[in-house]
Structures are given as C-alpha cells and as structure tokens.
Amino acid sequence: xxxxxxxxxxxxxxxxxxxxxxxxxxxxxxxxxxxxxxxxxxxxxxxxxxxxxxxxxxxxxxxxxxxxxxxxxxxxxxxxxxxxxxxxxxxxxxxxxxxxxxxxxxxxxxxxxxxxxxxxxxxxxxxxxxxxxxxxxxxxxxxxxxxxxxxxxxxxxxxxxxxxxxxxxxxxxxxxxxxxxxxxxxxxxxxxxxxxxxxxxxxxxxxxxxxxxxxxxxxxxxxxxxxxxxxxxxxxxxxxxxxxxxxxxxxxxxxxxxxxxxxxxxxxxxxxxxxxxxxxxxxxxxxxxxxxxxxxxxxxxxxxxxxxxxxxxxx
Length: 315
What we know:
Layout lengths: L6 H17 L14 E10 L1 H6 L3 H4 L3 E8 L18 E9 L2 E8 L9 H12 L10 H8 L1 H8 L4 E2 L7 E3 L3 E4 L5 E10 L5 E2 L1 H5 L5 H12 L2 E9 L19 E12 L3 H7 L11 E3 L4 H19 L1
Antiparallel strand pairs: 1-2, 1-11, 2-3, 3-4, 4-6, 5-9, 6-8, 7-8, 7-12, 8-10, 10-11
Helix pairs in contact: 1-4, 1-10, 4-5, 5-6
C-alpha cells in the first residue's frame, strides 16, 4: 500500500491527519485519527453466483475466503461512549485475506451521505468547524462553509440514529468502484452491507442510558451465541450516473445485487493489537475490482496509511 505519487495529495493528507487529531483534542497515541474506538472479529465470506458474473476478483470465484472485520465509532476519541450521538455514523471495514500477503478491503459507514468531494474540501470543513467555537463571528466559519456546500449540510443534518447492535446496522461504501469480469466488461458500483438480523435503532435518550461500551458488549455476547451475518451488496450505476463524486447519491431505482454473505464467527482474541497493526485500504488493489476516478480514493488511502504508521510506531 504505497503513498500516492502526487505531492499535493500527500500534503493534503498530512494536513488532514493533523486536523483530525486537532478535532479530537490532540494525538491519542496508538489510535486511529478517525474512528478511533473499535474492535475486531474474524469470519468467512461466501460469494454468490452473481458476484462471479460481475467480477473476476478471486474472493468471488473461490468457495469461501477468510476475513477480518472491524466495527467502529466516529471521531478520533478512543473513549467516546457508544451512546454518544457523535459516535454516529458507525464504521465497518472488512479484509478479505486472499493468501500470502494478498488482500482487499471493503470500507463503509452507516449513512449513504458524504460531506465533500475532495480532500481539500474536507480539510476546509475541519478547519471551519475547529474555528467555530465560542467567540466565533456570526455567521461562523462552519456556517459559511455549510451555506456554500449543500452536500456537507445534507450529511450533517441527515438522521443518524444509534443502532441497538453493530449487527443491526446497515453500511454504505463512500466511493464508486469498478468491477471487471472475465470478459472485460466494466460495471461501476458502490458497496452496501446489510444485516441479516435487520436494521434496529434507538432514540438518543435511550442510547445515553446505556453503558459506555454497550455495543461492544452486545456483539461479544451475540457472536458467542452464534454467527452474525451480513449480505454484501452492490448498487450498480446506470448510464449517466456520476461515478467520481462521493457526494452524489445514485437513484434507488438502480439495481442492487447480492455479492455474497459475510459471516462473523468470533471476536479476535487480541483485538487491540490487531487493530493497531492493520491498515485498511479503500483502493481495491486486486484483479477484477478497480478504482473509479473519485479523487477521495487516493486521499483516503494516504490518510489511512499515515495514521496507520503513526499507530504502529506508538504500539
């Protein structure tokens, strides 16, 4: 997982990591700059026949693939209570271990919205929020930014209720990617991850009454009682759909196909060590799945890599 070759992308990514740390009140050594609080499980992915027709990726053609998964809360605060509204949207990352040092990842969060199109805009948003505390002018820098960036306003105001369980939440890929099948046919898509148990949420007041780690504790008990399953889905772009802008949602009339089933079978025995070491990658880097032209892909990959190297150095 190399850094991008574009020096401007690298610099913006460095600035983003610093801004994310600042938003969390400073560096929390050994933790991610974003989605700091989380835990890991292991399991298996079983592909559907439909997946094989869309992509020649190895985990869609073999009978099953071992996986690691991480669930997380938003923010760079490693001790944020699970019931805090700021812990939404929740995150999920799934690593498909393809043998040797080969792997590919799926990363999503629990809202179909994203606030900005580029890394530079995300940095501008973080700086605006950071300078909009008590004593800020009116309108504040954050209000000015939101007034000129309707996608950011839509992201911040969209409902993000707390789930009763990480196993009862749905998750959405941020950026479009591109399938290539054995015949070379290209299909743009976005991932969706749907809970077999169904979506179940709670009111903010009820969430605040819960213990600070209730989602971790609930899933630990749930998976001890039996496997937890999700359907890995792909929303397929139609002709004319925008594939290089994460702020543009596709119509719900787009086809959504099942790629297979993610089955989580147990908690990782050394979750804290594993999640400090693992660096998830939003760029597929596997035959049969390619990046789109979305500029966020390189930015996010660089931010994840930089934050991961910091985390490993502190471990």
